[in-house]
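WARN  no MSA supplied for this record, continuing single-sequence
INFO  ligand: adenosine-5'-diphosphate
INFO  echoing inputs
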Amino acid sequence: MNNQSLGGFEMTKYVYMFSEGDASMRNLLGGKGANLAEMVGLGLPVPNGFIVTTEACNRYYSDQMTITPEIQDEIFSSLAEMEQLAGKVFGDPERPLLLSVRSGARASMPGMMDTVLNLGMNDAVADGLAKLTDNRRFVFDSYRRFIMMFSDVVMDISRSFYEQAFEQVKKERGVQTDLELDADDLELIVSKFKEIYLREKGESFPQDVKEQLILSVEAVFRSWNTERAVYYRQMHNIPARWGTAVNIQEMVYGNMGDTSGTGVAFSRNPATGENKLYGEYLMNAQGEDVVAGVRTPFTIDHLQEQMPEIYQQFADITQQLERHYGDMQDLEFTIENGKLYILQTRNGKRTATAALQIAVDLVAEGLTSREEALLSIDPKQLDALLHPTFDPNALEAATRIAKGLPASPGAATGQIAFTAEQATAAKEAKRPVILVREETSPEDIQGMNAAEGILTARGGMTSHAAVVARGMGKCCVSGCSEALINASNQTMTISGRVFGCDDFISLDGSTGIVYEGSIATVKAEMSSNFQTIMEWADEISDMTVRANADTPHDSQVARDLGAQGIGLTRTEHMFFEAERVFLFRQMIVARNEADRRKALAKIKPMQQEDFLGLFRVMDGLPVIIRLLDPPLHEFLPTAEGEIKELADELDITYERLQEIINELHELNPMLGHRGCRLAVSYPEIAEMQTEAIIGAALQAAAEGIVVKPEIMVPLICEVKELEFVNRTIKTTADRLIADSGQPLKYWVGTMIEIPRACLTADEVAEEADFFSFGTNDLTQMTYGLSRDDAGKILETYYQAGIFEVDPTAQLDRVGVGALMRTAVELGRKTKPELELGICGEHGGDPSSVEFCQILGLDYVSCSPYRVPIAKLAAAQSALRYPRK
Ligand code: ADP
Ligand code: MG
Ligand code: MG
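INFO  complex generated
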């Protein structure tokens, strides 16, 4: 689309005027640029501009981080076009054009990339602009902002030098806010800023405006690969190859005086979903002032009193855009001398609660379809709704210590962390913390993610902390000005009381209240919106969602959350309890079949009771129970005392037991004596487990329960293994069923988790009623990378750009995917009715669920709390990849 035939040969176009683009060109123009172009097309008041494409960003990287002369030429000819439109000239003191240079990737990455405003300012332009506007204060306010942003974003000079100089002047003048500084003060600040620049760079602040522009474009491209951008991409699954576009736009000035201002707003409440314009603004301010919390902003309602016509115009535009996009919009606006400009719109980030409310409302209002509404909800966000809230009784008894803004709902308890590093370290030590900051910045992202919740002293509902926390589904209280935070002393003082790193606090993100100490939490309640969305999802999905659940309790949780069966019961998990583990150990250390059978006989009733519980809970739904899988030595004691105790109980000597333990020791247990290999070596184990499963199923059926037992054999690499184990299972099961005199249908299948099983799936399918992809092991074996040791390796790999995501968390479609595809094709060739599913951790990961839809699987299975996520992801996948 962006190839133009010029003089007979194809040339890629790297720069587009806003008027040449529209919302459909998001991949090329980035989200912000595409939406700016779309708004220009709608005739909205958007300052002029043009977009340097994401492909230019990729070119920049492939051209050794330079912008080629051809692309520079394109930029400057678009700039000339813009000058025509604006009636202003870049760098001309008589009628200067100033620019904003903004990043904008395909997916919105709020706060991740950097913006430079008032570009094109220099000494001569400042003089000229002062004459032209007769407003020196405005001119030097713009100039000082430009120097600081350019220094920070483009030249990598620390903002703090500038902030200190700024604070210094404020202090000398005895004022609290930037508003109280006059033109002379700001001019003084500009000269101080220039000195800082000279000191730090060893050269004067660049007066050549074209140089300013090209350097800034390069800086936006570079910002695509900053550490925080890379981290954000990883978290949100954004590939590095997308690149960012650069938006170059005429400046409009919110800092021209009392009839100017700037703000941000959402067309609906992003915390609750309430259908009411929601936002904040500041008069005589610019850029990120509102978000950065330099002064406390007004709520948008106040604009209705202050500038009723502007308010009405703005409210109408938000409605128009919401209708146009069929979704809640997040807008940025500036008022210049009483005239409104829209600087950005995008589908707004929102809390999970709001996401559901808005989706249901938009459908009811006829603004969007069910399908679109389902697609608008981020499945991962649902997580936030499934997590506990404070126990009302415990809350009653708790002591409130402060109140801030309810920036992102949820309940969080933890000790205080004053820095992102502390929070990250605490997370590693599995210690819950609340990250407490004056305000957060993009550098804090990792720490915010590690914390249970975030408390800030400054900043409003649209501050960095609030926006990012909502995106993460993390509890956040912002703008809690009662909290005096001293990060260097590691203290937070509230009404004279001092809190430190050892103290617990609790946050209620829905009320903004901060409590002392830790508070007990209770299970989340499913709202009716939640139920509605889940029903819509079920109607649309091709796949069902089962749960991985090992106990009747977990199964009940799963069923309450909408699970449509059990995809995996790990029978060994039933033996972690102290009393049972002894019997299990007795079975493991038995050195002959008779002893083993003795131990198994004691275990059987317990297993049967557990299975009965599962069948009761899952009445009418399929239940897959997997035979014993783990390396046996995992269950053996290692401490000397424990070994002695076990030896006594077993009535053998310590030395004998130690000998047995040594015999059981394996060098690579994950590739050792486990899975079906146990059932091959010790058929009596498979026999006992089959008796327990079928016994429980018969018992449940006698109670009137509809049972669908599926027996699953793990770790098959060769069909003859399955044939062997199947003989044990079927003989045992058929004997029990015949003895009972009642009919019972059961299924026997296998995990597909060894590459060889995928490659020979046509043979394996001869012996199997179903396949369940065990993608944890399959991934580990395909990559030859132990999932227990992957952590450190992955870190290095991310940094080296070798991996972008963790293949154990997100299914690898290329390699592991190819094996799965082979298994699906071969398996169905042998047996068209073969039931196919996945039970690895990937079953709850939306991207992996999507891949399962593409492969044509029948179900995915995941942990109970991820069932709703998987259901929504399954519905979205069905919409994106419909099956014939
Ligand atoms: P982000 O992606 O962090 O939202 P933006 O690119 O939207 O960053 O820029 C940040 C802020 O800069 C905007 O919210 C707006 O206030 C200001 N800004 C951007 N472009 C202009 C412009 N043309 N005129 C005036 N202010 C602008
Ligand atoms: Mg920004
Ligand atoms: Mg913005």
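The first strand starts at residue 3 and ends at 6.
INFO  checksum written, moving to next record
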